[in-house]
Amino acid sequence: MVTNIFVTNIFRDRKDAGQYLARRLTKYRNRDDVVVLALPRDGVPVAYEVAKALNAPLDIFVVSNSLDVTGKTVIIVDDGMATGSTMRAAVRAVRKKKPRKIVIAVPVGEREVCNSFKQEADTDIICAMMPQPFNAVDTFTGTSPQPQTSRCSSS
Predict the structure, then answer these.
(1) Has residue 119 been placed in a domain?
(2) Which domain holds residue 43?
């Protein structure tokens, strides 16, 4: 008899996931050349905890955003990576803005997807946990209320 064991709720919620992820990013704490970019919407509560712990500015990354990241270390945060397609699009867009370095940071990700980003020359990848089997991001990050759109705008 074969039994599939599915790991769920590694983190209580996205806040907990962000705090855990921030502990993996301490080398970026208190640096004036670091900015944290959140991928909306689920990445916002994760990125908020990361930015708070690193004492770094936080912005919401929208492709049309005019944020100047030239010469900076940019930490792109999402709540997880299942296929990597959203993160790949974000990395391509940020790369066009000529940052010094790109750091991808997620609390949970599918192992092959996380490993595929390691081949990028200017990119560091922090996938805090890579559980197997990987179901869906929400399976591991628990539940937390969706941020309201008005709270996700960078003014």
Answers:
(1) yes
(2) 14-134
Confidence (pTM): 0.79
Q: Which of 101, 107, 126, 102 is nearest to 115 (CA)?
A: 126
Please check whether residue 144 lies inside any domain of the structure: no
DSSP string, 2-26: --------SSSSHHHHHHHHHHT-G
49 vs 51: CA distance, rounded Å: 6
Taking the CB of residue 122, how many other CB atoms lie within 10 A of it? 11
Beta-strand relationship, 101-108 and 34-38: unpaired
Segment 90-121, tens digit of pLDDT:
999 999 999 999 999 999 889 999 999 888 76
- Answer whether 22's CB lies under 8 Å from 28's CB: no
Please choose, from the candidates 56, 22, 64, the residue with its C-alpha nearest in 3D space to the C-alpha of residue 40.
64
Rounded to the nearest 10 degrees, the angle between the axes of helix 14-23 and helix 43-54 is 40
